[in-house]
Specification:
Strand order of the largest sheet: 2-1-3-4-5
Number of helices: 5
Number of domains: 1
CATH topology: Rossmann fold
Number of strands: 5
Largest sheet: 5 strands, mixed
CATH architecture: 3-Layer(aba) Sandwich
Helix content: 25-40%
Distance between the termini: 62 Å
Radius of gyration: 19 Å
Order of helices and strands: HEHHEEHEEH
Length: 193
């Protein structure tokens, strides 16, 4: 067997069979609440007045260990891009704020996401390394309030996780953020009908 073929065979075997190790690294500050538990189903978003469904302003925060993580900018960008896509599909004006948004007097909703912990795992890493990438997870609390005057609408907890043992089919961070965005914007889209 040639060295190239041997390397290819070994790589394919790793992708299909996986490996028992789960290296640290990745994003976030710690391990997920339950590394092998399936992702919890996402609850419906907080009930919002129809006027508040015209515009969504998203901001993200978290404890120091989270916001100073090396992949925090990439994690925030994932949320920004995914929410922008869902908002566009729902016909909702969208903005991302790097600081905590303040009421502006306009109809809309401020969504402040406080990320307690996360582990960023991308699709490419999952395909290339399968089980060895570890588990993707997000632990966050979202506060919904009025963009007009700051009146609180409510809070929602989002807890997602995936098992790396599902190999390349395990949900990765982009899919988990997509599920959260779809849950939030579903309520906004319903108001447009």
């Amino acid at each position: 067997m040639t060295p190239a073929l041997l390397t290819l065979t070994f790589t394919v075997a790793l992708l299909l069979a996986g490996c028992a190790s789960a290296p640290g690294g990745g994003g976030g500050a710690s391990t997920p609440p339950s590394a092998s538990a399936p992702a919890a189903p996402l609850a419906p978003a907080v009930a919002l007045p129809d006027a508040a469904k015209r515009r969504l302003v998203l901001a993200m925060t978290g404890p120091k260990v989270v916001v100073e993580s090396k992949d925090w900018p990439a994690f925030k960008r994932e949320w920004q891009d995914t929410f922008a896509d869902h908002a566009r599909q729902a016909g909702v004006a969208f903005a991302f704020s790097d600081t905590e948004p303040r009421p502006t007097g306009e109809d809309g909703t401020i969504l402040l996401v406080d990320v307690a912990d996360y582990r960023l795992v991308g699709i490419g890493a999952r395909i290339m390394f399968g089980v060895m990438t570890g588990n993707a997870f997000i632990e966050a609390r979202a506060r919904f309030s009025s963009l007009r005057d700051g009146t609180p609408f409510g809070e929602q907890t989002y807890s997602t996780t995936s098992s790396a043992w599902s190999g390349i089919f395990a949900k990765v961070t982009p899919q988990q953020v997509d599920s959260i965005a779809a849950t939030v914007l579903r309520d906004f889209a319903a108001a447009k009908r």
